[in-house]
Amino acid sequence: MSDTSTFPRSVDVVVVGAGVTGLYAVHKLRGMGYSVRGFERGADVGGVWYWNRYPGARCDVESVDYSYSFDDDLQQEWDWSEKYATQPEIMRYLHHVADRFDIRRDYTFSTSVTSAELDEETLRWTVRTDGGEVLSARFCVFAVGCLSSTHLPEVAGIGDFAGATYHTGEWPHEGVDFTGLRVGVIGTGSSGIQSIPLIAEQAAQLTVLQRSPNYSIPAGNKPLDEEARREQKAGYAERRRLSRLSGGGSPHMAHPKKTFEASEEERRAAFERRWELGGVLYSKTFPDQTTDLAANGVARAFWEEKVRARIEDPAVADLLVPTDHPIGTKRIVTDSDYFETYNRENVRLVSLRGNPIERIDERGIVLADGEHVELDAIVFATGFDAMTGAVDRIEVRGRGGRLLTDAWSAGPRTYLGLGTDGFPNFFSLAGAGSPSVLANVILCAEQHVDWLADCLRHLDEHGYTAIEATEESVADWVAECRRKAEATLMMSADSWYLGANIPGKPRVFMPYVGGFGAYGQIIKEVADSGYKGFGLI
Ligand code: N01
């Protein structure tokens, strides 16, 4: 924990989190002359990239796009080495950003904010940390990340296991050597699918325990040479322009025709091009792919044909092909040699469908059919209490002492993802109610921070103390988010977008699915109108 004795106890802004959003918020607001204090649970910057160090961890947005756009010198000077950056390279980049703009100096690391309480008289926030600090802030800005509260399932006997256990989202910084070990991986989302091929290369025996198969597409990752980088950098301005208009915050546009307007030949060519592009972008090949089930079925069939060709044993392929949700309604995983891994002699796939884990004991995992999978190590790739988990960890009390967790007990309630009624001068960035996890989160961070910066300037220029979303605008936005989600196929998958992975969590589609560019237009119009839907106090 750093020495905080010289830090101010009263500031304009407290920023919680030093991930990609928090870092830019501190940099931008400080540059405008606001006094800012940042707090971060981890020992350094990086957020989700600080914690998720499992083997194979890699971004599923191209490195050229998954980088800040706010400073062209930064864009031009940084050299990405691969199309999709690994976690260590992203961390090097974020360290570079933190050093270059001297962002760390306003942060206290290894320190969690435990509570934030509104003083209704002054409309200031009292913020407390687990380091014993108490400070007063005019604005409270949560940049706590959507995937930063890990989820460990409740399995009987979990504490009895004699071997080592790991969660992909809290991976040991010194790394793990699985050489010669019998390893079990529970979970086949992005984290499982990215780590399984690398664990398989080390382990003596790998058993993958799969509850739901997932759609995954090869990254088509490749090193970037000087020529490729030069081209990317020369095209940055246009790349960013297109990204800001796009649905997902990267410069790729869906095919101009709907699925069935295109000929069979055009369709195959379009799917092939997206397949080559790699990963998650496949879900937006045609504009109607996640709204029309028949169109989705065509995309799915192409995927299945490609994937079955990679798996030698048709019975294993049957287990690996999802049939329970349309393609793209859970995040498509971006993999490197995932399906081929099941062709290895030392890898076994166990389907938990109809044969769930009954308990864990000293020696391994016991399945419902009585099989005892003996293991030396268990990797939980079991995901996160997404979007609200990290917010829920902090006791936030607004007007009348109301807890934010109570206000959000039936699902997150925000206006534009930014503000909540009853919580003046409280902002949540790149989280629920905004495109966040459905788009390139670095550009989402910039979109939100830039909006916030303009908002604070507006308040000051017009002599206001505070801004607060109205109850009506929150209700309307919650309804709009629901309407948008219901117009897609996204409601039909048991995804973490819907909170379906956490027992008891309300089934509410949490991100805004209307598109990154369209959302940017909405929040801009709200700002241009003098912040309609907010009360200015
Ligand atoms: O988590 P997940 P994740 N018994 O929730 C299974 C981002 N990300 O960490 O589907 C057995 O997707 C669960 O099964 P089911 C990305 O946005 C990005 O992998 O619930 N199994 C599922 O298979 C991603 O979507 C990258 O039936 C249990 C798995 O655990 C998000 O983070 C890399 C279980 C959890 O999958 C989350 O990904 C990594 C139980 N009791 C993550 N409980 C990039 O590429 C859960 N499971 C940038």
From TrEMBL:
* InterPro entries tied to this protein: FAD-binding_Monooxygenases, FAD/NAD-bd_sf, Flavin_mOase-like
User: Which cofactor does this sequence's record say it needs?
Assistant: FAD
Which GO molecular-function terms appear in the entry? flavin adenine dinucleotide binding; N,N-dimethylaniline monooxygenase activity; NADP binding
Q: State the UniProt keywords alphabetically.
A: FAD, Flavoprotein, Monooxygenase, NADP, Oxidoreductase
Coiled coil feature spans: none
Q: Where is this region: Disordered?
A: 216-263
Keyword check for NADP, yes or no.
Answer: yes
Keyword flag Membrane: no
Q: Which domain of life is it from?
A: Bacteria
A matching Pfam family: FMO-like
Question: In what ranges is there compositional bias, type Basic and acidic residues?
Answer: 223-240
Which protein family is named in the record? Answer: Belongs to the FAD-binding monooxygenase family.
Concerning PANTHER family, the annotation shows: L-ORNITHINE N(5)-MONOOXYGENASE-RELATED
Identification of the protein by name: NAD(P)/FAD-dependent oxidoreductase
Q: Which organism is it from?
A: Streptomyces antnestii
